[in-house]
Amino acid sequence: QIHVQPDESAGSRRIDLTGSPDQLVSAFALALGRAYAGQVDTATVLIPANQVGSVVGKGGENLKRVRERFHVHLSLERESVFDPIKKTEERSLTLQGSAVQMAQALRCILWSGSSVTPGQLSSQSPLLAAGPWGPLKHVQLPSEDLDEVQVHFSVPEHLVGAIIGREGAQVKQTSVSSGCRVLMSSRDCRERCVVIVGSYGQCRDAQSMVHDQLVVASKALGGEVNEVMITYLVRREAVGAVIGKQGAILRTLREKWKVSIQLTRNEVEGHRPCTISGAFAEVLQAEDEIHDLVQHAVESRTGVAKAARSGNDISSVTKVLVPAESAGIVIGRQGCGLKQIREACCVHLEMLQQAQTPELQDDRVVIIQGTLAARQAAVALLLQCISRNDHCCLKLLAPSSQVGKLIGKHGSTLKTFRERWGVHVQVVRTEVLGHRLISASGQLEVVSMAAPAIIMLAETAELPSPAVQDHTM
User: Fold this and answer.
1) 41: helix, coil or strand?
2) What is the CA 310 to chain-centroid distance, rounded?
3) What is the mean pLDDT of the chain?
4) pLDDT band at 281 (very low <50, low <70, confident <90, very high)
5) Which of 364, 342, 362 is nearest to 351 (CA)?
6) What is the spatial distance between Cα 24 and Cα 374, in angstroms, rounded to a whole number?
7) Given 3-state DSSP classes, what are the helix, strand and coil percentages for the chain, each rounded to the nearest 5?
8) Closest by alpha carbon to 12, among 37, 41, 32, 26?
9) Which of 57, 101, 421, 441 is deepest in the core (most CB within 10 A)?
10) Which carries the bigger pLDDT value, residue 125 or residue 205?
11) What is d(CA 18, CA 1) in angstroms, rounded to the nearest whole number?
């Protein structure tokens, strides 16, 4: 919807736009193109003052992500301005870059603030405004089948036909090949998307097929698909497990896979939409871990458990050594420290008594059980507890057969850790409690960044490693 405000006294006219994020961005780019014939490099977004936080993100992380991804300059005014027509306080966010970069950045900003009503957009003259969009459609209530999931794969309007095919032939073939229900959302939705319902394995296959179709169709038009946006519907009872305490797990997933993850506050048919944006391979990896977190939480609540699952087995264990002198800090008063980590990361966690590990005089063993993402988040919290003067040492115990991949050929992986993160990683030759000791030392920040990769590599090696000498890089 478009509304031009009849204020001719000012040097500019204001245009109010209402629609989906994609519709708003398209209209934004079109208006700038027609008004300035593409010769414009600045636009201003006016955001309701009470909703700035959702758009900016904690510590400005949302805006930082937009700057880095789209190479635009963003500047948020500190002072609010009053809109006499809407009678609201607003903050001014200025974007600088090419028209294409600003449109891409605007789309990301709108989605990052998906829990708020988008504010007003302006580009000197004319002024533009964005309004709220409708709720997510084509969402079903959670199935009694705990294996069933719902995923929405966003599709650009100009590529919808390629996904549907002539008389629906393509989308039907996708459904048959993947074994799950696949349909294209109706035209009155906030944006077009492929709705996929079935077991997670089936949905994953369907997403890969849709992505391949998008790549082929886009290439035929002279374009390419650099990023995708997929919405995974998180069951109500599993939301806490996905978020983690103060967003710890979501933050870990974002940093690990370099994707944007936004979990909306509004519930739809017993679900909370979780939107993941980025390169397709990384989006799918992040979705895998989110699905594992959801399944783990649901199974824990219902008492249902599987002997095994593809991907990250819920029975997987990470063993961490913490200095004996720091054990009290980790445990906390009456065990509150351990309890906080359990609740924040949705893991089973226990610290063994010193008498249970007499071989270790200076360390205590902490056993963490849960999904890979949950264990990685728990380790990050442990590192914060044991760090001193912003320096820490991560110690992990891993089966001897699984350290070869971590070392790499001629120590290549250890060298990568040093060069990429500045982390000193060592694999000790002597076994401890039937395991190899892996240590990583350095500044807390860099060790915390490297820890998820170390944990993953330490447990995913497929072949036993050859005899290992002490390796230090």
Assistant:
1) coil
2) 20
3) 78
4) very high
5) 364
6) 37
7) 45, 25, 30
8) 32
9) 421
10) 205
11) 5
In one-letter notation, the amino acid at residue 20 is: S
* pLDDT tens-digit map of 339-374: 888 888 888 888 888 878 888 888 999 999 888 888
HEC profile of 308-343: CCCCCCCCCEEEEEEEHHHHHHHHCHHHHHHHHHHH
Residue 229 contacts residue 280 (beta carbons within 8 Å): no
How far is it, in rounded angstroms, from Cα 232 to Cα 151?
5
CA dihedral in degrees (205, 210, 211, 217; nearest 10)? 150
**Domains of the chain listed by start with CATH number:** 2-110 (3.30.310.210), 148-300 (3.30.310.210), 317-458 (3.30.310.210)
Buried b / exposed e over 355-371, threshold 16 CB at 10 Å, is eeeeebeebbbbebbbb
Task: Please state, in angstroms and rounded to a whole number, the distance separating the CA atoms of residues 418 and 346.
Answer: 31
Decide if 244 contacts 250 (C-beta within 8 A). Answer: yes
CA torsion angle for 351, 356, 360, 364 (degrees, to 10)? 10
Residue 151's H or E segment, with its range, is: strand 148-154
Contacts of 271 (CB under 8 A, 6+ apart): 139, 142, 150, 233, 234, 235, 236
Q: How far apart are CA 28 and CA 162, in angstroms?
A: 26
pTM for this model (two decimals): 0.48
Q: Strand 127-130 and strand 14-17: pairing? A: parallel
More reliable by pLDDT, 12 or 461: 12
Read off φ and ψ for residue 126, nearest 5 degrees.
Answer: -80, 165
